[in-house]
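Quiz preparation item.
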């Protein structure tokens, strides 16, 4: 269960909603159908004409397949050199998995890297991802299955995969043992943060 301070909704939720929705190529009408809210109400939220309640945001987050915390993401200060100790990694637990940042979330350059730990059935969420740049995956343990434009690539320990991240993609662990993999995203536009998209897409842990 997420907890928010009394000023949580002062964040520019409307702008975040529009970004998260457009990243997934979901129209207002489609989001309205999935969430049970009206397209007009969603439009008013995006245009900052009304402030949504936490329960309304929860419905929208569920419809988008993301955690409600994605609406309150704040950009960290970027640096040209980032050194991260193993015990100081950013960690985001999600349903049957763990995302660990390897410093890319603080790096000022066009590269992001993270470590995935996936239990059996752990996956990137119900929707395929599309973003700028190129993506590299290296499987350390178990099996990490990537689906890229409908083609499946089962990566076992030592296997790697590189592809254009503008192709629709997703990942999962279809095996019976825990899978570990390093994911690197590079070459995206300066203003784009595809690592944020990956984390906001992760399936929520059950309460």
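Solution:
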């Amino acid at each position: 269960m997420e907890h928010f301070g009394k000023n949580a909704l002062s964040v520019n939720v409307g702008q975040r909603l529009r970004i998260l929705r457009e990243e997934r190529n979901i129209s207002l009408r489609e989001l309205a159908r999935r969430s049970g809210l009206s397209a007009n109400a969603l439009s008013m939220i995006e245009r900052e004409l009304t402030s949504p309640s936490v329960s309304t945001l929860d419905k929208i987050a569920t419809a988008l397949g993301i955690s409600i915390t994605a609406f309150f993401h704040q950009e960290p200060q970027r640096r040209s050199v980032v050194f991260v100790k193993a015990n100081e990694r950013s960690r985001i637990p999600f349903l049957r998995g763990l995302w660990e940042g390897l410093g890319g979330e603080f790096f000022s350059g066009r590269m992001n890297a993270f470590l995935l730990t996936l239990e059996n059935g752990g996956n990137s969420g119900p929707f395929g991802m599309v973003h700028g740049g190129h993506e590299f995956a290296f499987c350390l343990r178990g099996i990490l299955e990537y689906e890229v434009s409908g083609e499946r690539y089962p990566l076992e320990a030592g296997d790697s995969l590189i592809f254009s991240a503008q192709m629709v993609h997703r990942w999962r662990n279809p095996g019976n043992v825990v899978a570990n993999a390093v994911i690197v995203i590079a070459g995206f536009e300066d203003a784009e943060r595809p690592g944020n998209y990956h984390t906001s897409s992760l399936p929520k842990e059950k309460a």
